[in-house]
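Standup notes
- DV: blocked on the single-chain target, sequence here:
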Amino acid sequence: MKPIKYKCFDVEEPELYRSIYPYESFPVARIEGADSFFSDIWVSDTTLRDGQQAMRAFSALQSVQIYQFLHDIDNGEGAIRQSEFFVYSENDRNALLKCLELGYEFPEVTTWIRASKDDFKLIKSLGVTETGMLMSCSDYHIFKKFNSTRSETMQNFLDVAELCLKEGIKPRCHLEDITRADMNGFVIPLVKNLKDLCESYGVDVKIRACDTLGVGLPFEQAELPRSVPKIARMLREEGGLTNKQLEWHGHNDFHLGVANSFAAWSNGMSSVSSTLLGIGERCGNTSLEGMLAIYCQLKNENNLKLEILNDVADYFASELGFYVHEKYPIMGADFNTTKAGIHADGLLKDPEIYNSFDTKKLLNRPIVIMINQSSGSSGIAGWINNYYKLQGENVISKRDPKIQLIKEWVDEQYANGRTDIITNEELKSLAEEYFPSFAAKEPQTKKMAHTEL
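- DV (later): unblocked, structure below
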């Protein structure tokens, strides 16, 4: 045997990096140089505004239920700080008023309007203390959509913002299409004027930077106007805004919704706009559950009830006909499911080998083993041990000859062209054929096609 040239360091105990991977909670994220920004971070929700406009309309009752889910998930944490509503139809206004009547601190009920005097009239008497206000800031919008000039557009934005301030309503200024806008030539002057105007009324301005087409990049090295870190820094340093005055609103056209939103947090924007399940225009918005998963890693300790996300997925499927893709992170059916035999073998030895945190405890999502063409003897043995809750000396080994016979049956299925998974019913029948004593045992689950670890 050839001698080892580069020697490793043998240790008596495994290095499991417990300060980073505690297992009973989410992995801990420590970001050098950005930790100071994470003391004040939260998400805002736009499921009932930006999310809904890409789906069939929600009834008032459905909107209230979704708002209730958001409140219950937040559990008083303040992580889901606000939720915004349309006000253009009677149904929208009924939903908003019903949610206001609930009197919840989190998420705060806010509205969304265009920067027009007619839209302002819609919110004047609704009882909200803050409204989102669309202020498109790229020349694509100013010249091609508004058929206007920068100066005329800016003046209109300031005029409508002042109408809100006179009525005691704080404007949350949505700088639409900021990732295609002239930061120095239009955005920063607009922000400074809005800041001065709000301060004259004793109010702190709030600015939402909107990556409307999802073209933002999460890299400091990227050029403006696409660099999220540079946008955040300019708004803080040149616009004179604090972290709490800044919010990022991203879309997912290039798979960067969550990455760009995390970059916004990392570079001093306290708030990130998001939607449940990432619903929204085209490829969707930044997903709320994705940002909450990152929030938990940054905060380490929190009171969120993320297990309610299971109810959200069920509700969207049953009430709205929207089904979560099985491969969707956190909430998809395959999130903590294994079909590979080598993974099943590791999971049976210790769940931490292929599970980065206790999904049963934090999400009420037990590890699941499913059997397909890749599961092998380890997967089949794991399925039987979990389904029949076998422990200690009763555990069936993957080397048991009867397991090999079941594996031969499974292999034959796929050799003959089968493509779908082996169902629980089939596996139960096979297990009780080869292990007759199992017929009297109470299985762990009656769900189809999988068993939980």
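- Follow-up: Residues 444-451 have pLDDT under 50 and may be disordered.
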